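Researcher: Quick sanity check before group meeting.
Model: Go ahead. Protein one:
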Amino acid sequence: MRVTTKLSLIAAALISLSACQEEAKAPVAPVLDTDAAKQSYALGVSAGKYLSNAIEENKKLEVALNSELIVRGVQDAVAGKATMTDEEIQKVMTALDEQLRNKQAEMAKKKAEEAKAGGIAYLAENAKKAGVTTTASGLQYEVITAADGAKPKAEDKVRVKYKGTFTDGKEFDSTEKNGGEPVEFPLNQVIKGWTEGVQLMGVGSKFKFTIPSELAYGERDVGPIPANSVLVFEVELLGIVPTEAAEPAAPAKK
């Protein structure tokens, strides 16, 4: 998420100014003996926490700023002695904002490329494991529990329980996270890896799917799922639902 430049700069100023004040004298506890004092302090703490998070995000973009000049700018603005015009400030801030956006784009591209390479390596190793089958599309699956029940078609609605994790085992979604009840959805309205994989299952079976990014969300960031992520799902197929039944929200939507 892009950090607002002005808030980041203010945060830097506040942090730097606070550090200077702490060096000059020992901190004194605030006197909060009136509603106005409490409100003022609460507002300051809330803003400080938000801005501290903002400056930390800004640091990740590796944009070098001079904290002493930031503090000086705040002091000059308060005193009405700024040495730059509003037009000059706007021009500089616009350029800085563009610089930050470019940095974000560069970092996002690098992260996506690293995820893509890591996913390819993971899939290659996973394919060597006993019990893993790789389909023509690149989908990998393992049969955890076999069953001879009916197999759904792409246009069918299915009822399942599932757990979704990243390749490092970190869970990002599951039926347990969402109350534990099975979910129902049309099989042709989810990611390609689900549409293909669940059609391989008989009702009553449980499979583990390792889904390449191109069969999941590809180069998109979707909620907690970064671009180019290989996804791992354990899916238990509980039934094929008559099409006239109500249609709850589905996991792993397109």
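Researcher: Fine. The other one?
Model: Protein two, sequence then structure:
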Amino acid sequence: MKTDLILLHGALGSSETFSQIVPELEKYFRVHRINFSGHGGRNFEQAFGIPQFVAELNDYVSTKQLSHFSVLGYSMGGYVGLLYALENPGKVNRILTVGTKLHWTPEFAETQKKMLNPEKIMEKIPGYAAILDKNHQPQDWKILMNKTAGMMYDLGQNPLDLSLFQTLDCTVMIGLAEMDNLVTEEECLNLVSFLKKGGMSKIPDSKHPFEQVNAEALMQLIHSFFKEEN
């Protein structure tokens, strides 16, 4: 019997992030994809940020009446998946994160915030602006970007205490793109040191953006990590 696998996208992304690998995943899993509020055309909620997205994942799980499932979370999606599992013991079987950054500092957050400037994006990277506009219609991607910048600022001001993950009861694999310029091996290993059932795996020939992750290597990691479930 196929098991349930929920795919969680990153900041400024959408459920379409995983389109290229979904056909292969559906051979082995019942695949679920959701858009967090403000992403992929979904309406904004009054709140915006990690706690809100964790609540939205919880709502989805409740609506679909999923009792046990696994998670593949890219970047912010991995952050959301880990916190959901921490707050809901016994619900998540396994979590594979890809490019997830949990070590935030005020300095790093400020750097990222400055990069998320809609006006500059439209001026210097109009092609990317057009993609964001298409992916998030009918929502305004510029509002989404400004809210995302604010979320990153908050992450820097209120860094997560990784020791909380000592109580996490599911198996976790931290996937790190070999050439990721946002997430370091040191911070990944630091997280792993707090996990009861955790490890780290490098994804070769890959960078942080999901479209620059080596799809073949990622699928090999997915198969090897989730094989005990199927």
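Researcher: One line on it for the slide.
Model: Strands lie at 3-8, 29-33, 69-74, 92-98, 171-177, 198-203.
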